């Protein structure tokens, strides 16, 4: 099987943060068959989609990285939508709108793929990816077989799913949307886009999306703003002036620059509200000594 692979590749230009060192091997499967082959053959790997919710180490990662963006098949049958893990959210949102289907309007401004959005149960504007999910096609890492699980078996919660236990990998998903007015659906998508533009940085300002998860019944952005988060910055990175839960790479930022800023944000909220924010951004790769220390503080329960 001829699967495209690149060695010793700079990963930063593939990430929305534009940060990251070299990776040992980068695999680019074009279909589900190639992806499943890799998942069976490789013992250790990191699986990524559009690299939009990650901070890749500037030290790099001397291992295997698989990108799923080549798995971009999607199909609409009536009000049923079937999508592979590498399909980008905005494209699927547009396709659903053109078919007069409602439920994916919130995805129009998301840079991620379906795999990443199901993994984290992405949500915005009162909608979530799990709302209309019917079942998932998964790779079982223990048995190395393809299996299917219904929505009620996926343990969806706020920014969480069964995929985060690392037993399964999403290959594709089936959704059942609701019929609606195309004009109304597109109008809602436009409102969602405008709302994001008003407060969130677009990718011309390299960022990885929300930095911290919202605590229960509260907003990380609100807490950070009240704690003076918008004033935090360093030479190469800054907190976005319109929303305190975003960090922007000013140009040339390293992963250490970003982690230092995340620690400042975390500490400000902890000192003012005694609330310990949990990062939404996933850190990947080797760490400097300083990065090790920061990660022990801000990722204590979810990342060693």
Descriptive overview:
With 304 residues, the protein is α+β, with helices and mostly antiparallel strands. It contains seven helices and 17 strands. It has helices spanning 32-41, 89-98, 114-119, 182-199, 220-226, 255-273, 289-298, and strands spanning 4-10, 22-28, 46-48, 54-56, 61-67, 74-77, 80-84, 101-102, 123-124, 127-128, 133-140, 145-150, 168-176, 178-179, 237-239, 247-249, 282-284. The strands form six sheets. The chain has a five-stranded antiparallel sheet. A four-stranded mixed sheet has the order 1-2-5-3, with no helix packed on it. The chain has a two-stranded parallel sheet with strand order 4-17. Helix 6 (255-273) packs parallel to helix 7 (289-298). The longest helix is centred in the last third of the chain and has 19 residues, at 255-273. It is globular, with a radius of gyration of 19 Å. The mean pLDDT is 95.
Summed up:
By secondary structure, the chain is α+β, with helices and mostly antiparallel strands. The protein has seven helices and 17 strands.
Primary descriptors:
four-stranded mixed beta sheet, 7 helices, five-stranded antiparallel beta sheet, 304 residues, alpha+beta, single chain, 26% helix, 17 strands, 25% strand
